[in-house]
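Task 17 of the worksheet. Students: predict the tertiary structure of the chain below and write it out as C-alpha cells. Keep your answer in the requested format; marks are given for formatting as well as content.
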Amino acid sequence: MDLTYYARLLLRRGWIILLAVAITAGAAFALSKMQTPVYRATQRVLMQPARNDFGLTETLRILLRSWVVYLDTQQQAQAAIDRLSLDMTPGELMRYTTINSDPTQLTVQIDVDMQDGPLASEIAYELGVLLKEYLDHGNRDLDKQDRIEAIVL
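Model answer:
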C-alpha cells in the first residue's frame, strides 16, 4: 500500500469523518446550552497566631479541623440563613456548601456552589464572618499572646 491509496480512500470516505466531527460538535454545543450555570463563591479565612512560635502554630494546625466541624453544622447554617433572611432550610444551605482547612497555609476555605452567584458570595462571606466571631468570642478570655486571630480575606 502506498500513499496514493490512502489519499484516494480519504477522498472517497472523508465525508464520513467530516460528518462525525460535525455531529459531535453540534451535540456538544447543544448539551452545553441545556446546562444551567453553577457559580462558585470562595471565602478564605486566615488564622493568624499572636506569636510565631512552634507551640501556638502547632495548636492552630490541630484546631483548624475542629473549626471546620463547628462551621459545617445545622446551627451555623441556620445563623447564616437568619442573618441573610434567606428562604431555605439549613440542610439546603449545607448541600451547597463545602468547607475545608489547609494546615500548610493556616486557612479555612468556604466554597458555595449555586446558580445565583451574588447569593453564593453573600453566604460564603457570612459563614466566614460567623467563624471570625466564634474565634473572637473564644479569644476574649485569653492573654493577647495566646490568641489566634481570624482574618476574613
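Marker's comment: The beta strands are 39-49, 97-102, 107-114, 148-152. The CA atoms of residues 6 and 12 lie 10 Å apart.
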